[in-house]
Design a protein that fits this description.
By secondary structure, this protein is mainly alpha-helical. It is built from 2 helices and no strands. It is rod-shaped, with a radius of gyration of 13 Å.
Length: 52
């Protein structure tokens, strides 16, 4: 269990760091970053490119 928790925390940290480096919104709660941060960010970038 400890290893699973550690790996989960690392994934969350990486996602938060990635979003911060990409110039995205301020870091979001772990639950938000864990489930939807990447999806929302990808959609936002896609929409921006489509709008030109």
């Amino acid at each position: 269990d400890a290893l699973r928790v550690a790996s989960s925390d690392i994934k969350q940290m990486l996602q938060i760091l990635a979003s911060s480096n990409a110039g995205g919104p301020e870091p979001q709660p772990a639950s938000s970053a864990r489930s939807g941060d990447d999806v929302v960010d990808a959609e936002f970038v896609d929409n921006s490119e489509n709008r030109g």
